Amino acid sequence: MATATKTFRNYIGGEWVDAAGGETFESHGPATGELIGTFPKSGPEDVDRAVEAAKAAFEEWRLVPAPKRGEIFYRFGQLLIDQKEDVAQLMTREMGKVIAEARGDVQEAVDISFYMAGEGRRLFGHTTPSELPDKFNMSVRMPIGVVGAITPWNFPIAIPSWKLVPALVCGNTAVFKPATDTPLLGERFVELLDEAGLPKGVVNIVHGGGGAVGDRLVRHPDVPVITLTGSRETGVAVLRAAADNLKHVHLELGGKNPIIVLDDADLDLAVDGIVWSAFGTSGQRCTAASRVIAQAGVYDELQSRLVAAAERLRLGPGWEDGVDVGPVINRAALDKIHSYTGVGRDEGAQLLTGGEIASGDGLGDGFFYRPTVFAEVEPDMRIAQEEIFGPTTALIRVVDLDEAIRVANGVRFGLSSSIFTRDVNKAFRAMRDLVAGITYVNAGTIGAEVHLPFGGTKETGNGHREAGQAALDVFTEWKSIYVDYSGKLQRAQIDTEGVNEP
Ligand code: NAD
Fold this sequence. Notes:
alpha/beta, Aldehyde Dehydrogenase, Chain A, domain 2, five-stranded parallel beta sheet, binds nicotinamide-adenine-dinucleotide
């Protein structure tokens, strides 16, 4: 197994190979800076080889009966279960999230594997009557070809699974480019796919940066589908680069997710939901709650309970017992998060707790940031508008539900949203009026289940969804088939005897 050594390679056409240029980069754990491994710093030439392998494999893979393709993913799901603890421990070391969350990340991949394996026996299309006699109509899902899957580091097993498993079950082949902060987990993911029995060339991994590897994948003429999860800026660049070939582009981008707390809410429950959603994964989730919109009657009480809860959280390496909040991913992320504390102060928001890089107390050289709460935040402040992607949340005061919904919707993103209330009428108004791909009632902004569509409105994406049945629309094209068994030429809309006649 490639993980027995500390030097790793690309996987192209069923072979583990170095980058053509021979260059490498290192992956370091964010909690201690430990060296995780050395990986190929690939370039366009490596992408071209991987696409060639995937294109060749497509010709056979698309003809494997879909239920048989699905069976490989039952095996893959089982391998993930068998390896769950091992992969979760790797995740805690390489990416930093606390071990319970790392196990959850792997579990998402198990869930999607079993769900999509079943799709091998469904992949439902439609049959429908014809307007003409002796004619049969149906629509079927067709695979498209080579899928380029580009992923971030924050869900290093779950997100690749959300993309690659449905893509492959549908009969496509893939070239996978994981984030350079979590290459070992990408590697492990592909090793397990290989072990599950995927034929050579069906999945390929090419390590390296967005500029060299990602961009080549996006522009490659033999890659008709690109699925990217990343920042808004990367999404715009990818969409532009893919435009010349009119590729199918599926984008899952940023969020600025609100939790609304109304005067009648269960405050204990709301605080639990906010703490989990704002500070879980150190706030590095696309669905993190970076805004808390509180009605005036509960604002002060909520604020003091939230600050107390944030201050109780224990920072440390994710593998230690009792740690609630792990490190952020790297130095650049730490600096960016801290710079937003300065932005919030300069804008006149009130820093209630946190707002500093944490060190000492066994934190070593890790990239730790104190859970941070700003109060008296105005909806148009930058800390209430821009994605910080760290453990920072902003309290905004509103008078009623109408204002809460206006504020919640007043950002460019529309991924997740939540409301805490005991009033069913208000809950239903929020379900209808919050412009977001996901709304939770009496729960925080995180907790997606894989059999429902996942994704966002507005600038969180471009109208597609991951997971659930909706994912199949990204990875297949519809074909409509008309079978005329009348033995004569029948012209649609013309030879429709009796139809539309008085
Ligand atoms: P990022 O945009 O920096 O990188 C994402 C991936 O894109 C990486 O693999 C990177 O190498 C690659 N990339 C960068 N530039 C590229 C280019 N020009 N062409 C092709 N590929 C390129 O994002 P990140 O820092 O890894 O992740 C954090 C972001 O991801 C946040 O904005 C977060 O909200 C978002 N995210 C969204 C979801 C979702 O489902 N909506 C889920 C998780 C994370």
